Amino acid sequence: MTGPRPVVLSGPSGAGKSTLLKMLLKDYGNVFGFSVSHTTRQPRVGEVNGKEYHFVTRDQMQKEIDAGEFIEHAEFSGNIYGTSKAAVQAVQARNQICVLDIDLQGVKSIKKTDLKPIYISVQAPSIEVLEKRLRDRRTESEESLQKRLNTARVDMELSNEPGLFDLIIVNNDLQKAYSELKEILAEVAPPGVMCDDYPRLQGRES
Ligand SMILES: Nc1ncnc2c1ncn2[C@@H]1O[C@H](COP(=O)(O)OP(=O)(O)OP(=O)(O)O)[C@@H](O)[C@H]1O
Ligand SMILES: Nc1nc2c(ncn2[C@@H]2O[C@H](COP(=O)(O)O)[C@@H](O)[C@H]2O)c(=O)[nH]1
Fold this sequence. Notes:
Blueprint: E1 7-10, H1 17-28, E2 32-34, E3 37-39, E4 53-55, H2 58-66, E5 70-76, E6 79-84, H3 85-93, E7 97-101, H4 104-110, E8 118-123, H5 127-137, H6 142-158, E9 167-170, H7 174-185, H8 198-201
Parallel strand pairs: 1-7, 1-8, 2-7, 3-4, 8-9
Antiparallel strand pairs: 3-6, 5-6
This protein binds adenosine-5'-triphosphate and the ligand Nc1nc2c(ncn2[C@@H]2O[C@H](COP(=O)(O)O)[C@@H](O)[C@H]2O)c(=O)[nH]1.
The ligand Nc1nc2c(ncn2[C@@H]2O[C@H](COP(=O)(O)O)[C@@H](O)[C@H]2O)c(=O)[nH]1 is lined by residues 13, 17, 37, 41, 72, 74, 76, 81-83, 101-103, 105-106.
Family: Belongs to the guanylate kinase family.
Keywords: ATP-binding, Cytoplasm, Kinase, Nucleotide-binding, Transferase
Pfam families: Guanylate_kin
């Protein structure tokens, strides 16, 4: 892989990865680009095919996996999720820094590739807070919520493994978490870009 180092955001479902990513793309959307994953899960209200995910059937996804079109894929909460080679190449073709939002299995798979990203884990302050966030988000059935919480308990334990992540952000105060994210991203972004004035100068601040 050529170009600047990609960025991997991981962490339990409900910890706040998408929220932080949305803030980043709103402020620095011409610097960073989101790697649009494939998933077999159903779209949530407001999700658009090709934007949040490429929503596909299990058959379609399995065929593409078998054809070697994915860098990594994983089964999460009863669905397949995966990063296609094309998704990463599309971002790199725009000369943007590629950001992947993937689970812990994906992190372990990416570690075996030549992508060499920065690995960031986003964690909630506690499992209780995580559960409240997931319930308040109102996207999960009780069954899916329990699966996600069980996976989250494992994720919270394993993410502390030395060397697995370059940074663990505990997302309690959202603005503080965002500042920590911007601070580490200054290491991969072009010099000066991650300054607080950049979004205003680009007319990207609301
Ligand atoms: N610091 C925070 N304080 C309070 N609520 C938060 C905070 N960060 C995110 N949230 C809320 O928590 C919920 C979960 O956040 P989000 O959807 O970003 O999580 P996620 O890690 O992307 O989850 P998933 O892996 O399922 O996509 C959202 O409703 C979001 O608005
Ligand atoms: N290994 C991968 N994990 C992925 C990918 N895209 C998303 N995810 C992870 O799935 C869960 C659930 O996401 P949700 O949108 O259903 O809430 C979350 O932890 C994501 O990080 C992927 O391409 N590969």
